[in-house]
Amino acid sequence: MLIKEGENLDTGKKIVIVEDDVASASEMKKFLETKGYAVSFVSDSSQALGMIKETGPDLVLLDIIMPGLDGFTVAKQIRYDEQTKGMPIIVFSAQEGMRELFAIEGINEYLVKPVDREQLFEIIRKKLGQ
Which residue of 57, 76, 115, 127 could cross-link 88, Cys pair, CB 3.0 to 4.6 Å? Predict the structure, then answer.
């Protein structure tokens, strides 16, 4: 489906972005909203699991390197919580070398920053069965 500039498609899908770089998260949020997703973000990783449980997203975008709890810890909390364990998680980081570590936790989508928005969109569509 082709979306014209300024047109907004409602997919009915919710995404939470966990990212301490507010400018980057805001840009990603705006982009995904133009693709029809309802997007919220949290910049404090220690509050991420609470927000994820509260909003019940269809997918989580998770930065790895953050102050406080790192993304690996947040991902483990999501995976080990009965309410959120099956939720798709896409992780991203400026560091390439953590891919194998996340594969162990069942997270197969790992993007290196800067994230290509169109590539991210295609991965999200696949993860959400669209």
Answer: 127
